[in-house]
Write the structure tokens for this entry.
Amino acid sequence: MVKQYDLGIIGGGPAGYTAALHAAAKGLSVVMFEKNKVGGVCLNSGCIPTKAILHSAEVYNEIKCAESLGIFVENSHVDFAKVIERKDRVVEKLRKALELSLKNSGVVIVNAAAELVGNNKISADKEIYYCDKVIVCTGSTPKELPNIRFDHEFVLSSDDVLNLKSLPKDIVIIGSGAIGTEWARIFASFGVEVSIVEFAQHLLPVADFDVSKRVERIFKTRKIKTYLCDCVEKIENKRVFLKSGAILEPECVLLAVGRKPNEVQKIDGVTYLGDVCGKIQLAHFAIKQAVKVIDGVDFDENLVPSVVYGNPEIAWIGAREQDLEEGSYEKSNLLISALGKSHCDDSTDGFIKILSRDGQIIGAHIVSKEAASLIQQITIAIQNKVSIDKLKEVCFAHPTYSEGIFESLFRL
Ligand SMILES: Cc1cc2nc3c(=O)[nH]c(=O)nc-3n(C[C@H](O)[C@H](O)[C@H](O)COP(=O)(O)OP(=O)(O)OC[C@H]3O[C@@H](n4cnc5c(N)ncnc54)[C@H](O)[C@@H]3O)c2cc1C
């Protein structure tokens, strides 16, 4: 029997499942091919599992500091196997919910590797599927370096660390992007000795310099050792040789130097979405791309918020100060310790930096508890070209971190 659908989607990650759900809601017949697990990297080995482990790490950290809050906890310790079990439960629960949602929407899921054999033809499981429209969103995989390869025992990928049986005593993390930075915080919170090696001049090199410098300060207080302007020349017999001459002997290494798009055949008439495009490798970017293609809702690709999770959160949107010409902008810088809520929460580390031009916000860089939510407020303002004067008319609740945004507006 000929298998015929309005839409065929290869890859069941955020780009794929969003396209599937939105297309099905519009009444299209949809088949989605997933060779591994529905939810893709984000749900199974990316955003969700890391944040679940991070939550355990943060709770442990808070318990360690709880005495100053008047809370006494005796004999607290980490059972890492249980941390991983809980992470697995979170992932499984969300995956089941997603599978159910796809099923209830009428999306046909084919659990097999699929291959594009024409702009309307997909081959999977020895069957041919004819689809009026085809979307390919097959994602990305962790990058290796020419001189450093994953062996999955000593040199680990971001997939491997999710399933460690126990915590190492110490670890070297290569790369201080979002993944390296989040894992440095997770491991450090669990009491692992962390060293992080970064090729660039600053940690988190994609961020505004002030953010990077603050992260460096925070890492210092957490006793995370940083090697900046440095790189790993070779790894031999579990010894990590840095260009600077330092030789590190950790229990394991996390290589976190980015992700490479999976290889795909480019065929005219086929739509490619998400990480596989090699543009912005974030789940919310993949989701917005899918919504644009299916629902025709456009978005500004220059206004995709970046968030690095942990305590405090780090988030930014729009222009970085180092990219602006001197004198072409105004800036405000508010310390989070100026906010009452930060003292209530014992979370005073951080700042809100806002950059503006001609009465409009053009960029914001936040290191603070709840930074991920704060940056969303600014994203909405920038995207809708809400002037600073208009924003000043908004009533911000007290005591909150959002008040920091309000306060900053009067300093521009
Ligand atoms: C450790 C880590 C943490 C992250 N944290 C965040 C975060 O906090 N926030 C954020 O926005 N982003 C985060 N990301 C990035 C995010 O996971 C990706 O941007 C997102 O998953 C990309 O979605 P996608 O749909 O393009 O691809 P993927 O999620 O990679 O999904 C692609 C799917 O296609 C399937 N596939 C591939 N080839 C075939 C084939 N031939 N046939 C059938 N199926 C196939 C794969 O099995 C996979 O399930 C993180 C990534 C990692 C690794």
